[in-house]
Amino acid sequence: xxxxxxxxxxxxxxxxxxxxxxxxxxxxxxxxxxxxxxxxxxxxxxxxxxxxxxxxxxxxxxxxxxxxxxxxxxxxxxxxxxxxxxxxxxxxxxxxxxxxxxxxxxxxxxxxxxxxxxxxxxxxxxxxxxxxxxxxxxxxxxxxxxxxxxxxxxxxxxxxxxxxxxxxxxxxxxxxxxxxxxxxxxxxxxxxxxxxxxxxxxxxxxxxxxxxxxxxxxxxxxxxxxxxxxxxxxxxxxxxxxxxxxxxxxxxxxxxxxxxxxxxxxxxxxxxxxxxxxxxxxxxxxxxxxxxxxxxxxxxxxxxxxxxxxxxxxxxxxxxxxxxxxxxxxxxxxxxxxxxxxxxxxxxxxxxxxxxxxxxxxxxxxxxxxxxxxxxxxxxxxxxxxxxxxxxxxxxxxxxxxxxxxxxxxxxxxxxxxxxxxxxxxxxxxxxxxxxxxxxxxxxxxxxxxxxxxxxxxxxxxxxxxxxxxxxxxxxxxxxxxxxxxxxxxxxxxxxxxxxxx
Length: 502
Fold this sequence. Notes:
- It is built from eleven helices and 23 strands.
- The protein has 502 residues and is α+β, with helices and mostly antiparallel strands.
- The chain is rod-shaped and about 150 Å long.
């Protein structure tokens, strides 16, 4: 139910659907208002809405006007699952064309609101249940209250033309009666407006839609005590992220090549220095052998002189010469044994480079502070926060989460127990890079993922736990969509002691 009824709409704007907008559809509902007169149904109207909390639905005021003005029953039909819910109107503000419905039973996956400005020309999608599509499909009365995916139409934002009544987002995504109250989302699937009305073209001009902007939505919700999930990061499309990844990969390749050249040069220098140290050790060994030989020779000469002196009855000098000779001859084995071993070259080289030796000796195990790399990350709805890792040999994190080895990296899959999200985590100790991919799952896929997780229960950090984690990760990856909705990349730094709190 829109303020202006559209006769004919032009073809939808050319834009490709994506997984983020599909995931946003989980939060969209059909709102059915049945007017009552003396206890009997007297009329029915439908519109759309979006969950801003698990038990609260945001829609247009004009969608639920009958419930605000008189007796009416509000039905809420989610986009997935098999159940439909009842609701109660708890906030109604026609000045902004906004209303809030409290679910009396059930829950809906809440959406995310983008609080930043919507760039002029940005791709957007209108999600909802236009009556024209329902009529063309010859939808029955039962079909209206059966969960089904919302209709998505793409368009572009036209900046600088807000409504005079309240702040709006002007766009050319195709909407019609029934889209009212449904979300206008950006390419990342975040709500940037609530579709309210369209321009009246009288069948001649192009039709534009007006969506109540987040400048109106957020204050309205906060005034009602609702704290929606809001993110201020700009939307980065998958194509834009791919271009950034390509540039960063080229930079990484160039840096890796330079690092290899530096490593080879450093290795050549180390090898040259090792040879020098080895030559010095050989010289020291030869010198030690020569000293031992000289001690034996001089000792023998003194002993021989002692015997000569003793024959001449010079007993005093004979004793002194004999003692000196024995002392020299006893020092010969000491001089021989004190010669350096050839394998001392590496230890001497390490002593000359204590920092490098310490870095090489440092194991991958230990505590890490991982800081989010916003350029490498594609974040749509998550709050970008740093993380900590307590990593142990064998792929154990936090003393309880076992990872499975995947070539040079470690990998682990998880399915959230309180939200429709599956995660694939990877950690590469060699580069100290940690990444988390989030997949926003539809209800059927979520149920299958949780069933898989029950089949492969989490175990302690043991070899059997690593095998179980690997089997579950492989099975879940076969179930997940082709691409993740989010990718969070962290640069980790080894620290001496883990923080007290995670």
